[in-house]
Amino acid sequence: MLAVLVLLVAVLVGWEAHRELSLDHRLSGVASEIAGRPVSVDCPGFLRGLIDLGGSGGSVMFDANGKPSNTTHLETSVCHDLSDYGATRKRAEFSCVFGTTPCSDRVERAVYAVLVLSHESQHLRGVQSEADAQCYAIQTVARVAERLGSPPAEARAVAAHFLAVDEPLMPTDYSLPDGCVDGGSLDLDPQSSSWPTG
Ligand SMILES: [Zn+2]
Q: Which domain holds residue 85?
């Protein structure tokens, strides 16, 4: 009986560790694409997740010279929502992202998780200022959403939805700077006239 229990726990821990590693690997690929260099995403995993109380969604450390670390640590809840993104976007309620009114809690959490991965990837790219990172992040949300399974039109809608519904609710540190407009100094693609994507 005990042996069966021990085996069961071992299988569960092993399965969880495998799931965890494959999620980290998938998210690291997305972050590296945005950061323009090989970086990694670290999710807390099952055991660490139990004591992870949460806070800002994710973090990247910078050294005294303003150089970012190669890893971002994401919170359990964000990792969970990113892991579920593919399933969440298939739900009928997800079409709400095409509008500019608040969606269900589940959908808003999925949109926010995409933003967090996009934002931390901007820090990994070397952007230290929270406001600038946030401005670049809203411009790369669509790319992140696409990499997580959204078709292009839906990915653009996720970005526009975040900008309209969620950005105004962000703490002031994350308020968009003056140059954060189409054709502004923080526009990643000034040639394009679409915003925030392109
Ligand atoms: Zn930040």
A: 2-174
Q: Is residue 186 part of a domain?
A: no
Q: How far is the CA of 123 from the centre of ligand 1 (A)?
A: 7
**pLDDT at position 49:** 65
Residues of the chain scoring pLDDT < 50: none
Q: How far is the CA of 5 from the centre of ligand 1 (A)?
A: 43
Distance from the CA of 137 to the center of ligand 1, in angstroms?
10
Query: Looking at the 3D structure of the chain, how many domains does it have?
Result: 1
Polymer length in residues for the chain: 198
- The answer to whether position 134 is within a domain reads yes
- The rounded Å distance from CA 11 to ligand 1 centre is 36
pTM for the structure as a whole: 0.90
Query: Considering the domain boundaries, does residue 197 fall inside one?
Result: no
Three-state secondary structure call for residue 19 = helix
Retrieve residue 148's tokens. Answer: 């997580």
